[in-house]
Amino acid sequence: MRQSGRLGDAPQAETPTRAAGLARLASFVPYAAVYARERNRVVPPHDRVSRLSPYLRHRLILEREAVAAVLDAHPRDAVDKFVSEVLWRNYWKGWLEHRPHVWDAYLDQLRRDRDGLAGTASIGYAEVIAGRSGIACFDAWARELTETGYLHNHARMWFASIWIFTLRLPWALGAAFFLRHLLDGDPASNTLSWRWVAGLHTRGKHYLARAENIARYTDGRFDPKGELDEQALPLTEPPLDLTPRVLPALVELNTELPSGLLLTPEDLAPEVSHLSKLGFRGVAGGWDETVGEDLDLAPPVVDFSRVAIADALSRAEAHFAAPLKSLDKTEWQADAEAWARGLGVRQVVTLETPVGRWRERLEQLDGRLARHGIALVRARRTWDSSLWPGATRGFFPFREQARRQARLEGFTRIAQPQPG
Ligand SMILES: Cc1cc2nc3c(=O)[nH]c(=O)nc-3n(C[C@H](O)[C@H](O)[C@H](O)COP(=O)(O)OP(=O)(O)OC[C@H]3O[C@@H](n4cnc5c(N)ncnc54)[C@H](O)[C@@H]3O)c2cc1C
Description:
Blueprint: H1 18-28, H2 35-38, H3 53-57, H4 63-73, H5 80-98, H6 101-116, H7 121-129, H8 136-148, H9 153-166, H10 171-181, H11 187-198, H12 211-217, E1 259-263, E2 282-285, H13 289-295, H14 299-320, E3 324-326, H15 332-343, E4 347-351, H16 357-370, E5 375-379, H17 382-387, H18 395-408, H19 412-415
Parallel strand pairs: 1-2, 1-4, 2-3, 4-5
Helix pairs in contact: 4-5, 5-11, 5-18, 9-11, 10-11, 15-16
The chain binds flavin-adenine dinucleotide (FAD).
Flavin-adenine dinucleotide (FAD) binds next to helix 3, helix 5, helix 9 and helix 11.
């Protein structure tokens, strides 16, 4: 293994398939042990980090698989940092599951900020998202994001901080700019990371981008000395109740009932789940264009999800030996309803859809199916049901609990490939 931590020529275009995700994981594994040392450097093509996020985000590959792969190849201490970072994804997910109204509050804020753009602020905003703020590093990242659908974590932190504290633009618009372009755009990781940078997540603790830090970790490519507000105060907002709520109850899966399997881009590996042994009369999935509309998702983001769904459908068709149905993107709800009725099933099963647009769509579909006596069952993976309950407080107690659970089970749940 080369000690530089480089992965070689990382591909620029992402192929939205499980096979491509597994190949990316396999090529990262040898370098996972130098990840802790190298991960903060921001040098394209970002071969010091895994670039697995679009695959993990759609669950083309699973967090469990990523963790198991690095633990199989290295001593645990050597890859602890990577495992921790993967757990951040699950922490944010669990945190938002306990407080879904934080997502709703974000969407309300976004609507208000978009209305506000009709005023004079829009001139600055349009220039900034076009990569013409005049701050070279920031403009390079704006272009990189729109051209590749990816930004390194450190660049995301600097970008968000400069957006909020130097350019003084509304944070919700910045989070929407990320969601529009990121192939891994995620309601939990994105919204909560922006809130964290702003000082709204941990009240009064914000993240200020510093020119010296940018120069150091970009290997001197950028040096915005004197251009950044390094003294700004954290943002404030009207009080938002952050008390954790009870996690949403799930309808129990009855394995005896005739069932159909519905796939959403929230989880596209049904053959590697606790559903894998069940029989289904049919498998359906497809992009719902109403999901992309109000979030204004960029075409490459929609395309990634569309192709990923098609990949999952064909894997599921082969695995479950069930006929597949591609749902109409303009009439997704009606088409899903007609598919379930046509199959004559009593329940439609889908892998859990966390807080976000797909959860909302499934809640609507649930109402439609209920009229025909068909239950919609969101089946939660063991990974989520064991981790989410620990996401009521900060990340460090969450991680400790995850480690304790893993240790109690001899690390098998996390380390060994198994369904769920
Ligand atoms: C303002 C801001 C917005 C963000 N928006 C998103 C988003 O929409 N979707 C998203 O997946 N991540 C988001 N992140 C987290 C993080 O930046 C990305 O997950 C990471 O950069 C993806 O690149 P990678 O796969 O090479 O990561 P690696 O460093 O190789 O990490 C491996 C995996 O761990 C997870 N991970 C790593 N760091 C974090 C983190 N800080 N928070 C949550 N998960 C993490 C990701 O799934 C990632 O693929 C955001 C961070 C910030 C600061």
